[in-house]
Amino acid sequence: MIHFLRLIRPINLLIIAVTMYSVGGYLDLVYSSFNDGIMLVQSFNFFLLVISTVMIAAAGNIINDYFDVRADRINRPERTIIMKHIKRRWAIVFHWVLNFVAFGIAIHLGLVLDTFWYVFIHLLSINLLWFYSMHLKRTLVIGNVVIAMLTALVPVLVGIYYQDYFKTVVLEEAHPFHLNNYRFFPLYIGLGLGLFAFVLNWTREIIKDMEDVKGDLVLKARTIPIVYGLQKSRTIAIIFVLITMTLTIPIIWFWRTGYIDGIALVPLLLSAISSVITLMILFRPINQKNLKQANLGIKFTMIFGMILPLFWVIQLLN
């Protein structure tokens, strides 16, 4: 059991769930005056959406390790699980069971909520994760973009869920002024956080590829570090971190104009500190120790950024 949990990376799955619930909780409070206090984040359908997303991510982790056994034996032999603790055929069984259940939930949500979006996004994610692990991961740029895009879809899914509900149920006839102002607000929030996650996750993928050069050479991969070298890859990573720091400017503007108060800036400040530390690490000599620290710094930056809506919830409750 412990090896299965290590295989699916429970901490990463927990981050996905917390992100979805924090975004959902914030949107519930924003729309509370229109919705008679109903909290969609407490609904069973929202729980199913979170569970299905987590299942697809878990299945993606399994299939990624399945195709990376040879490289992992070189890059991180102590963390190799498939063939060492779990047989390959059982890994495939776990992968398909998780995907089958998640896709079944997507069909249920599509029928209940009268939308095709969940079936489309879940099916797209399942197939992209398979092709990413099998082929795209070893291609130049495309693999990084695909996995970063799939990470960005996590908050976007929440935006779609609330967008459909509030557009068709809550704001159908009443509050025409607020209808115009709030019609696309859930989607904007999802896309904004998704953009943040996209750039940061792409940065993290580049740093991970810098760590895994030896194993990727065995697989004849064409990653950015292999094609352009470690120095240029580091420069690209530094530029991407700086780009994510500029994405915080709109939030600072909201604070200056009074839309959010000081407590909502806590995760933003932590994210900025983590970004600065990551930049300092990236300017150090390129070695495995520094790359692992930079990877960890990027992960913390993502976590602080994605839980930002949770602090907005605290602000609204106060």
Automatic annotation (TrEMBL):
Keyword DNA repair belongs to the record: no
Chain ranges passing through the membrane: 12-34, 46-69, 90-109, 115-133, 140-162, 182-200, 236-256, 262-284, 296-317
Bilayer topology term: Multi-pass membrane protein
GO cellular component: membrane
Keywords: Cell membrane, Membrane, Transmembrane, Transmembrane helix
Family annotation (Gene3D superfamilies): UbiA prenyltransferase (1.20.120.1780)
Keyword Transmembrane: yes
InterPro entries: Prenyltransferase_related (IPR050475), UbiA_prenyltransferase (IPR000537), UbiA_sf (IPR044878)
Subcellular localization, as worded in the UniProt entry: Membrane
Any one Gene Ontology molecular-function term assigned to this protein's record: transferase activity, transferring alkyl or aryl (other than methyl) groups
Protein name per its UniProtKB record: Ubiquinone biosynthesis protein UbiA
